[in-house]
Amino acid sequence: MEIRSITPCKSGPDIQHVIAQLDNEIDISKACEALKTEEGNLIKFLRCSEELGAIRFTSGAMMILVYKSGKITVRHAASEEIAKGLLEKIAELVE
């Protein structure tokens, strides 16, 4: 996984928007099933769309989008470290 960008969110300079890219494309159906194992703990409001090629969910105050292309965005992260930790966990689940 490669972190492509880390920028401040529009909602405040202390809040981060992180974009990462996985090495491979994601099978949305399989990834959604894997993410369901964390639903209620790490993940809330899980929504999957094979048609759109995307998965959306929240984790605390963060909103996460996972795309079929392997792109993952994390919005409203309290810090770069928190976002990276979440991205690593997501990568383990969806790859």
Shape descriptor reads globular
Per DSSP, what share of the residues sits in E-state strands of 2 or more residues?
over 45%
Structural class: alpha+beta
SS element count, helices? 2
Indicate the mean pLDDT.
92
Strand order of the largest sheet: 1-2-6-5-4-3
Sheet having the most strands:
6 strands, antiparallel
List keywords for this structure.
95 residues; 2 helices; single chain; six-stranded antiparallel β-sheet; 45% strand
Task: Please describe what this structure looks like.
The protein contains 2 helices and 6 strands, in the order ββαββββα. It has helices at residues 28-36, 80-94; strands at residues 2-9, 12-21, 44-49, 54-59, 62-67, 71-77. The N and C termini lie close together (10 Å).
Short description:
With 95 residues, the chain is α+β, with helices and mostly antiparallel strands. The protein has 2 helices and 6 strands, in the order ββαββββα. β3 and β4 form a beta hairpin.
Helices and strands in order:
Layout: E1 2-9, E2 12-21, H1 28-36, E3 44-49, E4 54-59, E5 62-67, E6 71-77, H2 80-94
Antiparallel strand pairs: 1-2, 2-6, 3-4, 4-5, 5-6
